[in-house]
Amino acid sequence: MAPESPSRPRPDLRLGAALAAAKLTSSAIRALGRGGGTAAPGLLADRLDPALLAKLTARLPRGVVVVAGTNGKTTVSRMVADILEADGSRVIHNRSGSNLVRGVAAAFAAQASVGGDPRGEIGVIETDEAAFPEIVRLVSPRVVVLNNLFRDQLDRYGELDAIATKWRVALAALPETATLVVNVDDPALASLSDGIAARRLAFGLDEGRHRLVSLPHAADAAACRRCGADLVHDALYVSHLGAWRCPRCGLARPPLDIVGRHIELHGVESLRARIGLDRPGDGGQPRALDVSVGVPGLYNAYNAVAATAAAHALGAADHAIVRALGAFRSAFGRIERVQFRDRTLTMALVKNPVGFNEVLRMLTGTGDPATTTLTVPTLIAINDLAADGRDFSWLWDVDFELLAGGTAPLFAAGLRGPDMANRLRYAGIPPERLTLLPGDLPTALEAFVAAVPEGATAYVLPTYTAMLDLRRALAALGAVETFWKQ
Amino acid sequence: MHLTIAWLYGSKMNIYGDRGNVLALTQRARWRGIGVDVVEIGIGQPIPPNVGVFFFGGGQDQEQIAVSNDLRGAKGAAIKAAVEDGAALLAVCGGYQLLGHEYRPHDAAPLPGIGLFDLVSEAGPERFIGNVVVETERWGTLVGFENHSGLTVLGPGVAPLGRVRVGRGNNGHDGTEGAVYRRAVGCYLHGALLPKNPALADWLLAGGLERHHGPLELPPLDDRYEVAAHASAVGRAERTR
Fold this sequence. Notes:
The complex is a heterodimer of chains A (486) and B (241). Chain A is α/β, with parallel strands linked by helices. Chain A is built from 15 helices and 17 strands. In chain A, helix 3 packs across helix 5 (101-110). The longest helix of chain A has 19 residues, at 13-31. The radius of gyration of chain A is 22 Å and the shape is globular. The radius of gyration of chain B is 17 Å and the shape is globular. Chain B has one domain (2-239): Rossmann fold (3-Layer(aba) Sandwich), CATH 3.40.50.880. The chains are: A alpha/beta (486), B alpha/beta (241).
């Protein structure tokens, strides 16, 4: 049931000035070729009218979806937007991935008229973990999606407990009319969403294969939130996500409303899954959707289930979900293949230990050290600029020990390339397989590609700003397009 | 030769890649043909008698309370006795604070420490976050990453680990970072610290071995990646703070 359209607002001079300023700045930045122009216009517009985002989203007749989580928020929000479009809706979305309050405001300003009319009826907002409470307060979302809560860039956010506390307050303030779509395979998120006024749509996986043998080193939240005992897992899928229970007090993963099953992983290309709408919130019959998704890895199965649950909560038709997921391709830089000098480079973004572990698992085909063999030459490019997070301690939480048994030559580069090479040394990679590439990333890329045989495949695993540098270098050589044209 | 490393509360106190310190000690021993056991000591588990090196990492507030309770009495006394007997120890951040006399949070009761280090810590108004470079006499330049709001003040019974050249250190005022007592080192340096400060790693390793095997000289290793990581981290510290 769509809320009624808001009554026609009076002209709002302050909002108009903020929008005009944001639009002008954005065009000027693009004209100067200084990048995508995604955050600076928002900063200016925010100065002019701090309520801009609240005003614009209040004019969306079908409301707003807010997506948060350490990993997968860009992918999930793009999947949700694609499904809604396949369902015939016009969607406003901060698609460029600028996910702090100002970046979201800028993206929404760019998709509204100077009079303040949004060019769509429903909004999809990807938000940063730290900005999540403020964005929820500003936009009063109809649906909130929480995908997971992992350790990420602790230097920026403070510690996990602090974020969880702020999220708990934000979730408790959601009204009964809102829906929270939440991954209850994450014990912390299950606890945060327990007993809130909003309707809860719980999602997770129920899958016999693709289980981890043990908790990875990067895993968090192993203690029961009610009694403090160590949780046990009947199944563990990604990091600490899985079917968990407390052996002492009996607290356990809540029943799943939307469930990912029968997951088939097709290398670095794609996946298939059967998504069960076991307890559909719309009063309809339980049913299952067979989906194929154009992105790889078990973590993307979680993303597809999250997006399906959100789209379902918004009333999207089943066929729109299946069609949009089938046509879905990776978000900018998350994972992509590039043809370059007769080599195929598969580039996958790495930004925290859980994400890095899952990428390694995808590239090696297993999560089991006994059977892992990475044979493809791999470049790991680590930067520590502000957008990457300054603190690279987390490299020591990634299970690079998985790579020690393979034959692949490994290359390290970037501002923290030496730290990365040192990390690989301590993971037991023999010296003859390890190369530290000096110099800037374009130079390192040239050296790496020269070391890959013609016609062969290679992997490139960069942090965020390293990915931007590498894409720029590749784009200059004609290999990929620049992202804001997408 | 054999070394036992006791990792105190490894599953609860391991938030900033602290595992890297244990890996550094383990690998640097194995590369020299020394056998290593890493024993994780959890809540309620006693301290074994044969420990060469202790490692104690950082945790979040909830975990630190549980750990403080567990350290009271015999367990804390056993760690102190081992250090008096020559065992080596590295404690980082939360572990460092809990080995002092006490830690005073903003709005809760003080957490008692075991008093291995003569120091007290309290919650400060500001969080110190960023790369740190520390000058020391014994191990040369050390480099790491700090992320703490605790302010630590040293008493006369400990020496500082070194003087802060880049960053904030123990308390942001007196220019000190960390504390040293016998073969025990406490500090706010994550990084992980030991993989890119091999001189400190080997000093702890040697101490841990000497407790049971007598004086010895560790043969040198090929430290080119350690040296490169150290140099680039110092460079990044100078450029980012």
